[in-house]
Amino acid sequence: MRPERRIALLVRRGCDGVPRGPQRVEGIGLLPFSNTVHYDGEPGRRPAFQGFVRDGMVSGYAVDDGAALHFVGSELHRVVASKRAAQAYRVGMVGSEVVETALPGDFLGAPLEASVLAA
C-alpha cells in the first residue's frame, strides 16, 4: 500500500509577498505551522518572520528561493531544492529567543537549460 501523499501549498499563518512588505496572513489551516517563502530572496523577510514568531505567531518553517517542503500528513517528510544553496529552516521559540535551525535537504539536480526544454 502506498503512503498517502499530500502537497502543502497553504499553511496556517505566514508572510505574504505583497509589495507592502511581509505581513501576517491567516491561511486555511492545512498544517499546524507558520510558513514563509523567499526567506533569502527578499530583504526584511527573515527578520519580519522571526519577529512574528517572537510576537506569538505559531512556530513553523521558512524556505529560501528554490527550496520546498514535502509533508506526509502533518509530518515534514523531506526538504528538496532546485538550487544547491537553497535551504529550509525550522523557526521557533526556545525560552525567550527565536531559534532558526537549518534542515538537511536533497538537491534535485541542475535545472534543464532552455535549449533542452525547447527540443
Global outline: globular
What are the secondary-structure elements, in order, as H or E?
EEEHEEEEEEH
Rg:
15 Å
Q: Count the helices. How many? A: 2
Q: List the domain count as a whole number.
A: 1
Helicity range: 10-25%
Strand order of the largest sheet: 2-1-3-4-7-8
Mean pLDDT value: 81
Summary, kept brief:
This protein is mainly beta and 119 residues long. The protein has one domain (13-118).
Task: Describe the protein's topology.
Elements: E1 13-15, E2 24-26, E3 34-36, H1 45-54, E4 60-63, E5 67-72, E6 75-81, E7 88-94, E8 97-103, E9 106-107, H2 114-118
Parallel strand pairs: 1-3, 3-4, 6-9
Antiparallel strand pairs: 1-2, 4-7, 5-6, 7-8
Task: Describe the protein's architecture and organization.
With 119 residues, the protein is mainly beta. It has one domain. It is built from 2 helices and 9 strands. The protein has helices spanning 45-54, 114-118, and strands spanning 13-15, 24-26, 34-36, 60-63, 67-72, 75-81, 88-94, 97-103, 106-107. It has a 6-stranded mixed β-sheet with strand order 2-1-3-4-7-8, covered by helices on one side. A 3-stranded mixed β-sheet has the order 5-6-9, with no helix packed on it. A hairpin with an 8-residue loop joins β1 (13-15) and β2. The longest helix is centred in the middle third of the chain and has 10 residues, at 45-54. It is globular. Mean pLDDT is 81; it is low at 1-14.
